[in-house]
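Priority: low. Protein: Coatomer subunit delta. Input follows.
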Amino acid sequence: MVLIAASLVTKNGKVLVSRHFVEISKSRIEGLLASFPKLITSGKASQQQHTLVETDAVRYVYQPLEKLYVVLITTKASNILEDLESLRLFAKIVQEYCLTIDEACVLDNSFQLTFAFDEVVALGYRESVNLSQIRTFTEMDSHDEKIHKSIMETQMKEAKKKARDVALEFRRAQAEGRKKSYGRPISSVSSIAPIISGETTSYPVSRPVTQTKALRLLTKSKDVDAFIDQLKSEGETVISPTMKANSIAANVPVVPSAPVRIRIEEEMILTARRDGGLEAMEVNGSVKLDIFEERYGKIRIQFENLDTKGIKMQTSPRSVDKEMFRSRCLVVPKNPDTGFAHQADSEIIRWKFQAKDDSFIPLTINCWPTENGRGGCDVNIEYELQDTSLELENVSIIIPLAPGSGTPVITECEGEYTIGHSSLQWDIPVINSNEDTGLLGFSASGIPGDFFPIKVSFSAAQSFANLRVLDVVDMETNESVKFTAESLLSTKQYEIV
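Result:
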């Protein structure tokens, strides 16, 4: 009972894919398949669900599949019932890997089909496998690879964040260096010496400034290396942001600090109107579980949910006991005997919050452009942290400028700003309950509509849904398990139109 080959041929006899499972020459297979179209009729036989023809040496078991034939070549002594069962499985494989059953699609997926055929038959004999198992075997999914990728992504995120912090510290050091170099506070002048970087001009500002006609401290940009040398000559210790960021990335440990990691991730999409109303708001959140050691699969995770917004959360129907989370805010495996899978990025909770009530806006932006009668506008922009439970980091507010409007004149700024060719970027390192408001004032050419839409980006280490992890416990020993918990709220799109 030997299966010699499995093939896909067109109805005019062209061989597209053929895989033989026993020692047989290519010319012999080609000869057998060349005889196949002559042995079948084009009428009644081709309309049957399963058909077969025999010669003195072999048996052909075949099935029409749209424009093709799935053909199995077997010995005459093979079990016809097993052959038909194998034929059905081969037909399912073709339908699984080919969206359209035609010559082009089969040729595009010929390697995948060949690998899948090898999982069905070994040395001419049928393996006890089903389609789901074949899919798993051919995907070659690796939990260790997922965990490794997750660790590498975390390292990259941490290194980038620390590099941004170092760059911010460096800009602050530059501002302090100017104070020491020129002997007068920055806040006493209206124009700050620019640091030219690429196509944008950065103006570090430590405190609000008032509009005066004071002389600029510097009229030409200086090379960054020369400026660093000047700071060093004055006794300042300056470390290159790039060198420090590379050092941080190189020193990030490759081994996770705990066997269990829980990540709360949220993305916010918000569109607000310039008159203050909310047009649309959506927050998509999830909780992901990473188990780095298989022995910690049988755990229970205690959460605390302090949500007051009415966010409805859903648990994974495959892996989490829904009732335990609903009644006790406790995540336990749906099957306590097997526990959670030893893998990375296992999503256990998700939610989607939508609102049109402007009381849910975490950070409001109030922009007032007023025409000044000189062909331009006086613009005042104020932000206010409305959700004081959040601490927003790396806040960036980008205001568009009219094309060809020239350089805007900054009259007041809390934070730092960067002037580009077509936008003004206002950066605030941290906004929290202690520093919940800020103001930017400037004059620029244009009409009020030129300063919209305003785009905002920020991140926060607190959950918008007010969900946090309290404890992780081993269900077998009832002892606490070491874990790390991370929370990240970020903006995917945040606009004032």
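The mean pLDDT is 81. The chain has four domains: 3-139, 145-251, 260-359+464-496, 363-460.
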